[in-house]
Write a structure and sequence with these properties.
The complex is a heterotrimer of chains A (about 270), B (about 280) and C (about 575). Chain A starts with about 20 loop residues before the first helix and ends in a 9-residue tail after the last helix. Chain A contains 10 helices and 2 strands, in the order H-H-H-H-E-E-H-H-H-H-H-H. Chain A has 2 domains: about 140 residues, no CATH class; about 70 residues, no CATH class. Helix content of chain A is about 65%, strand content about 5%. By secondary structure, chain A is mostly helical. The N terminus of chain A is likely disordered. By secondary structure, chain B is an all-alpha fold. Chain B has 2 domains: about 70 residues, no CATH class; about 180 residues. In chain B, about 65% of the residues lie in helices and about 0% in strands. The N and C termini of chain B lie close together (about 10 Å). With about 575 residues, chain C is of the alpha/beta class. In chain C, about 30% of the residues lie in helices and about 20% in strands. A 6-stranded mixed sheet of chain C has the order 6-7-8-3-9-10, sandwiched between helices. In chain C, strands 15-16-17-13-18 form a 5-stranded parallel sheet, with helices on both faces. Classes of the chains: A mainly alpha (about 270), B mainly alpha (about 280), C alpha/beta (about 575). At the A-C interface, helix 7, helix 8 and helix 9 of A face helix 3, strand 6, helix 4, helix 5 and helix 6 of C.
Chain lengths: ~270, ~280, ~575
């Protein structure tokens, strides 16, 4: 099992200009960008946004290696989706290629490109901004800046800190199945064994959760609606500037899309 | 340990440990599910208003996104009636979140996030064999909905399904998947879908049928979001098939699956500190 | 591994403990001895009083505790003993104010929202969603009264939180299950935040608390990198930083290695010496705590107090009976001495040969390298060493469960019995069953069936043994391990000792030639411990090879008394 994926891996610099922004600001930027991009399926808007996002990457605190490790899933998702849209989507315009029942037309090829660019442009800010955000800082920000109910936020954070232990338990459970002679047969018996591991993991985690709840309650958690915060979560002027930058990026991309007439509302 | 034969198989008649709401005020009118008269009246009013809207019809002079009002009559009527019921359900579910509920919900969210992340990384492999018929991938959609429905069934608290599904989705996004930040929207929408159904049942039903309905509700919301965001080019027949398959998948995989899982967990005794465990048989 | 002390398992005295000369009796060493920042005027000790107290958990027919009458004066340290299932942990939870009877009983249900001075009225419904409503549904049913300084324990807790200080502090058994946050400093600060202590006070107090437990790392250190003993000391710091007047310890060292346990004991000892604090300790291994305790309270198997009095008096009066109930009594005359097993009929022959072995996590630096071992039939190989020294990792590799990073583990023909491959990690799971069995540290990890009787039968079924014989073999095994009366229970619902015995039974059912055990005696009471030693003796006599990764030196000595033993101490 690889190490705890919730910790900053190598190649991530949490002190980079955009990485050290307040998590609430990162959240706002991710939100704005994804809404702007999900509203439309077109090459120009998604392409413009993607170019601008890539231009902002040097300030995000991810080395190329770390970026590749975090973001490889994006092309992995974009390519099959583009393929499906290009060959299986609605056909229009001149036919470019016919492979049995699959047809590639000008219209569908453009749709495929748009789908792929959109996945990349929507995914990239999320991957980059989340990978430089410390969960504790995120929780502090959610509770102090966004004023979400602190009991839920802190319980969520405590649950997250169990993540590494759960991953380890899952590994031990897999080994234990082998020791019991299980999981060796065909795919069906492997699947059954996997179900067993998932169930056992759930049981073990729920027990841990109960003990953790006792420990938290014994230290005064949940007994009073008032609490103080040991770590301040300041929302500074540069955070505001960052939010405005994100908004500008979204507007610029949308403007480019509408100006070229390729902006195309999804919901109509 | 004997099997829990009396465990609820049917809808709303589930026996939660909540005593009749009337009892608290000394005014037990024998209303079902411990509803106070005021709340029952609110629900009745909401349903009546919905029926009234449906009967009168919305004016066709009024437009929303280019759709004229009369087409929207039925959806609006349903929204009013169902909305009132579910909001009343959330308000009257007299079960505050205790610390153990919060932490268990968080851990279900974390375990669910790990699960969803596993699904996400194998999603292409899972759906590629299904690409002969594009809407077929909705048949697996129920997998995404398990954390929310499971959380709702285990915790029996208003908001539990939403919290668990959202937490799982956030973790899935943090671990990294191909959908990035939009995963969080999915968490919210799927969670709300599952939550909405449980609220409609006034948080009094947690048996097999409510579980399936909750899964189906989450399935509808997931399908609608999917179609809007990722498959805007689908034809009408594809859309219908997609929604139908998502409902079926949600009801079977998320609904039946979570229900069976909850029962198995209760049998093992780990749910004893929780509402779902307290409702189980004493050992 | 980052334990500050040497690697010797039979613990050289750990440094970092307060030198004995500095210790003073609690009366002379009041607040004057502590400077304001370090412990800021210790709380006064708390009085405890139980009057006919009883508690039944939700979903249970039986009462966990019933008819308990008990008084503990302020400032005393009490060792709480009793057979497993006598409700010791329930009593501690009750004292910590964590048991919530809801509307079952409790004439005066407390408001959750604003527990400040006396505003008890109906204010409880208007506190917003986080604390809405009374706790209609508690976590059990209560009878009688449990008072902390004359106030019902649960109300005492909420009042204390509202007053920005804690009255009670609770330390639990499992070190990994009570770390709340992912950085050490944040974890200690968690309790202060909940008690609404102002931010400028928080960090000085956190630093002082970490120093007080001789914590070796700074505030920014990640909790996920801590060993069990370090986690437990961190949890202790998180409790002490709240300056409780009552310290509750629920088997705090049961899951620690001897070094970690000794360090924790030293820290608790220092706390007891320099503060007027009441303390209740639940622990099987009495020897570690007897010097600290003033009194012993023994709970009876069916509820209520069985015996109480000063430590040495109770042990001399009721020691034998306590031992029978599974309490570890340190008196040499009472240490369980198992009967030596007969010499094995056949001479030991090698089964597994280990050469230049490296083990560890895949793609990481090996935790152990250059291991040379020979595992022989009829012989126990004990792997010793502190936490993090790689005992468990090595055991998993020897069990054929994980692949070595380098070197090799080779099974001799006596073990392969016709298999083509000699490396156990390349065998099919099915082939392992009759060759190498494994007993995991946490029994829950290896249960796969839904009933006790079905659990050992799983492996036999996979091997194709016929139904009648399965029934016979399982029956014999369960009777031997005193589990026959539980055959229909779900394995997860058993007590700790029962789970341990069942996990051994599952591994033994298929009669593997080699049995690998990871900390088999962890957290077990004296009775289960003795049974395990006797069973291991029998297995050695029957020619099985045992590999035991353990911290438990008495276990190694006892095994030595019953059979052929070799030990191997691993460095950190």
């Amino acid at each position: 099992m690889r190490g705890d994926p919730l910790r900053f891996g190598p190649g991530i610099d949490p002190a980079a200009p955009l990485a050290r922004a307040n998590p609430a600001a990162k959240l706002a930027v991710s939100l704005v960008l994804s809404v702007a991009l999900l509203l439309t399926v077109d090459v120009v808007t998604a392409g413009t946004a993607l170019v601008l996002e890539i231009a902002a990457l040097p300030w995000c605190g991810l080395s190329p290696g770390a970026l590749a490790r975090r973001a490889w899933v994006l092309p992995a998702g974009a390519v099959p989706a583009a393929w499906a849209a290009a060959f299986l989507g609605t056909d229009s315009g001149a036919t470019l290629l016919v492979l049995g029942p699959l047809t590639l037309t000008e219209g569908s090829a453009q749709a495929g490109a748009a789908v792929a660019l959109r996945i990349l442009a929507v995914g990239l800010p999320g991957v980059v901004l989340l990978s430089t955000t410390d969960p504790t800082a995120l929780a502090d920000s959610l509770a102090q800046n966004l004023h979400l109910p602190h009991r839920f936020v802190l319980a969520g954070l405590a649950g997250l800190s169990m993540f590494g232990i759960l991953a380890e338990e899952g590994q031990t459970l897999r080994l234990a199945r082998r020791a019991r002679g299980l999981g060796g047969g065909g795919p069906l018996s492997r699947l059954r064994s996997l179900f067993g591991v998932v169930f056992a993991l759930l049981v073990v985690s729920l027990r841990r959760a109960t003990v953790l709840a006792t420990a938290m309650e014994a230290r005064g958690f949940g007994a009073s609606p008032h609490r103080t915060w040991a770590r301040p979560s300041p929302f500074t002027r540069s955070d505001t500037a960052f939010c405005l930058g994100g908004l500008a990026l979204a507007l610029l991309a949308t403007a480019a899309g509408t100006a070229t007439g390729s902006w195309h509302m999804v919901l109509s | 340990m004997p099997p829990h034969e009396q465990d609820t198989r049917t809808t709303g008649s589930d026996e939660t440990p909540i005593e009749p709401g009337g009892g608290r005020n000394g005014l037990s009118l024998g209303l079902p599910w411990g509803l106070a008269p005021g709340h029952a009246a609110t629900i009745a009013a909401g349903i009546l208003l919905g029926i009234a809207v449906r009967a009168v019809g919305l004016p066709d002079t009024w437009e929303l996104f280019g759709t004229s009002g009369d087409v929207l009559t039925t959806p609006v009527a349903l929204l009013i009636a169902l909305g009132t019921i579910s909001v009343t359900g959330a308000v009257t579910a007299r079960s505050p979140w205790r610390v153990v509920d919060l932490v268990v919900a968080a851990v279900i969210g974390v375990a669910g996030g790990l699960f969803l992340w596993g699904i996400a990384t194998s999603w292409n492999a899972l759906t590629t064999p299904l690409s002969f018929y594009p809407p077929a991938s909705a048949g697996l959609a129920g997998l995404w909905l398990v954390p929310g429905v499971l959380g709702g069934l285990i915790l029996r608290r208003p908001g539990a399904a939403l919290f668990c599904e959202l937490m799982a989705a956030v973790l899935e996004a943090v671990l990294g998947n191909q959908w990035g930040f939009s995963t969080v929207y999915y968490g919210v929408v799927e969670g709300l879908g599952a939550e909405f159904v449980l609220a409609l049942l006034l948080y009094r039903g947690f048996g097999l049928l409510p579980a399936m309905l909750s899964g189906a509700g989450a399935g509808v919301s997931l399908a609608l979001l999917d179609l809007a965001i990722w498959y805007p080019t689908f034809s009408a027949s594809y859309r219908t098939a997609y929604i139908g398959l998502a409902i079926l998948s949600g009801a079977v995989i998320a609904g039946v699956g979570s229900w069976a899982l909850t029962r198995a967990l209760a049998r093992v005794g780990v749910l004893a500190p929780l509402a779902s465990g307290a409702a189980a048989e004493r050992v | 591994m980052t334990a500050p002390d040497g690697a010797a398992p039979d613990g050289a005295a750990p440094d970092g403990a307060a030198p004995d000369g500095a210790a003073c009796d609690s009366a002379a060493c009041d607040s004057a001895a502590c400077d304001g920042a370090a412990c800021g005027g210790p709380s006064r000790g708390v009085r405890i009083r139980a009057e006919g107290w009883g508690w039944r958990h939700n979903g249970r027919l039986a009462w966990a505790v019933r008819g308990l009458d008990l008084t503990v004066p302020a400032g005393r340290c009490v060792l709480l003993l009793g057979p497993s299932g006598s409700g010791k942990s329930t009593l501690l939870s009750g004292l910590a104010g964590l048991l919530d009877p809801g509307n079952h009983s409790a004439p005066g249900h407390e408001p959750q929202g604003n527990p400040a001075q006396g505003s008890t009225a109906q204010g409880s419904t208007a506190q917003g969603s986080t604390a809405r409503g009374s706790t209609a549904q508690g976590n059990g049913e209560q009878e009688g009264e449990l008072l902390v300084d004359g106030v019902p324990a649960r109300r005492a807790r909420t009042a204390a939180v509202a007053g920005h200080r804690a009255r009670t502090g609770l330390l639990l058994q499992d070190p990994t299950a009570q770390t709340v946050l992912s950085r050490c400093g944040d974890d200690v600060a968690f309790g202060l935040e909940n008690h609404a202590v102002p931010r400028e006070e928080i960090w000085p107090r956190v630093t002082a608390a970490l120093n007080r437990v001789a914590f070796p790392y700074g505030r920014e250190h990640a909790t996920s990198h801590l060993s069990g003993g370090e986690r437990q000391r961190l949890a202790l710091a998180g409790v002490l930083v709240l300056r409780p007047g009552l310290l509750l310890l629920d088997e705090p060292t049961a899951m620690l290695d001897p070094q970690g346990a000794d360090l924790l004991r030293e820290e608790v000892g220092a706390v007891l010496r320099d503060g007027d604090i009441t303390c209740v300790i639940v622990e099987h291994r009495v020897d570690r705590w007897r010097d600290l305790a003033d009194d012993v309270v023994v709970l009876g198997p069916s509820g209520g107090v069985q015996t109480t009095g000063p430590v040495e008096e109770v042990f001399s009066r009721a020691g034998r009976r306590l031992r029978e109930q599974g309490v570890w009594i340190p008196d040499p005359g009472l240490v369980p001495v198992p009967v030596p097993a007969p010499e094995p009929e056949r001479a030991p022959e090698p089964l597994l040969l280990v050469r230049d072995l490296q083990v560890g996590r895949p793609r990481e630096r090996p935790v152990l390298s250059g291991v040379e071992l020979e595992i022989c039939s009829g012989t126990a190989l004990c792997l010793l060493g502190p936490n993090g020294s790689g005992k468990s990792t090595l055991a998993l590799a020897l069990a054929g469960l994980s692949a070595p990073l380098g070197g090799q583990i080779e099974a001799t023909p006596a073990l392969t019995r016709g298999l083509r491959r000699t490396a156990p990690h390349r065998w099919r799971p099915l082939d392992l069953l009759t060759r190498i069995g494994t007993v995991f540290q946490n029994p829950l990890h290896q249960f796969v069936a839904t009933s006790v009787a079905e659990e050992p039968a799983v492996g036999l079924r996979l091997l194709g043994v016929n139904g009648e014989e399965i029934e016979q073999r399982v029956g014999r095994l369960l009777t031997r391990l005193r589990l026959d009366h539980l055959s229909r229970a779900h394995p997860y619902t058993l007590s700790g000792g029962e789970q341990r015995r069942l996990s051994v039974a599952t591994a033994l059912a298929t009669r593997p030639s080699v049995l690998v055990l990871d900390e088999p005696t962890f957290g077990q009471d004296a009775r289960t411990w003795k049974e395990l030693v006797e069973l291991f003796g029998e297995l050695l006599g029957a020619g099985h090879a045992l590999v035991v990764a353990t911290h438990d030196l008495p276990l190694v000595r006892a095994l030595d008394a019953v059979g052929r033993v070799r030990t191997r101490t691993l460095g950190p």
